[in-house]
Write a structure and sequence with these properties.
Distance between the termini: 23 Å
Helix content: 25-40%
Order of helices and strands: EEHEHEHEHHHEEHHEHEHEHHHEE
Oligomer: single chain
Strand content: 15-25%
Structural class: alpha/beta
Number of helices: 13
Shape: globular
Largest sheet: 6 strands, mixed
Amino acid sequence: MPHAVIVDAVRSPMGKGRTGGALADVHPVDLLATVLKSLVRRTGIDPGEVEDVIIGCVGQNLEQSATPGRMAVLAAGFPVHVPSVTVERKCGSGQQAVDFAVQGVMAGVYDMVIAGGVESMSRVPMGSARGDADPFGAGVLDRHGALVSQGVAAELVADKWNISRQALDDYSARSHQRAASAADCGAFDDEIVSVATPRGVVDTDETIRRGTAADALGGLRAVFGTDANRDRFPEIDWKVTAGNASQITDGASALLVMSEEKAASLSLTPRARVVASAVTGDDPMLMLTAPIPASRKALARAGLSVGDIAAFEVNEAFASVPLAFQQELEVPDARLNPVGGAIALGHPLGASGARIMTTLINHLAATGGRYGLQTMCEAGGMANATVIESLV
């Protein structure tokens, strides 16, 4: 069985996903194409040897409706024979794209493949593909009742694990502080590629709020405590705010995956390899808890323990998610999202899994850590978990 390695990983800066955001004037196809071109330029590969481009994208409508990876391949100037496919596993789409790429190499289907993700939330608003349609149907309602939004699920998680409003805000402030510190010391420089926009070149994350303090976050109102939600869940002390949740964001990321033999033939030095991966479901009402069993499954497959992992990247969809994960797996603070997460860096849905892996690869290389684990909660009560090993 061929061994799969990650040769390089890059991402765009993170832009606020709204009108006037740093990347809002850039078509998502052009945003992804910029990342693809940078990946080819950095590695020196012949793009004609790329056998597939697997791209995570959640909002597959409007400007992201025409197989965005294929359009980006064409926009980047790749030969027309290079194909692409779109993966949609909600917030885990980009991570699943990487897992599929690795599995394809290991199966002997690919020698060289690009995996990544893109999401322009300023141009393709979250939920715009669904509109007013009912995504559940009678079968789900009969078995599980009326499911809730992710924000309400975050409240249910905070309640189940007895996570206070102060703990949510403290964690969120720390995410911004860690991301700011990492950015200021150049920790993101090697992974970010510049993006040209009509208003100039963007080369830094727009989303980090320096000086964020928990006291200031404490003044924000809980956004999901509507009358209807309070009537349904009278036991909840509503505490999820815009400040302790991930940011709506524009971004793209891409990783070059190939067989170990192919890398050697091109004299390329791999940066990392995937040791094990897992995907699983959990309670669809709590929705955001599946990273816990998925990570346990991935660790068991890797033959590793929590103590072997130098850094855990648990997507900060809401602060309650990594805090519940930390309680269950007993992860030390210093190893949980050590350079900040989606609360500070943003959450461009389909791109987040690839962005997080890019950041994790760079963090392990910079700190000398050997193993890292990343996991993403996903709508419907699912999660991906992936264990990687740094090779540099």
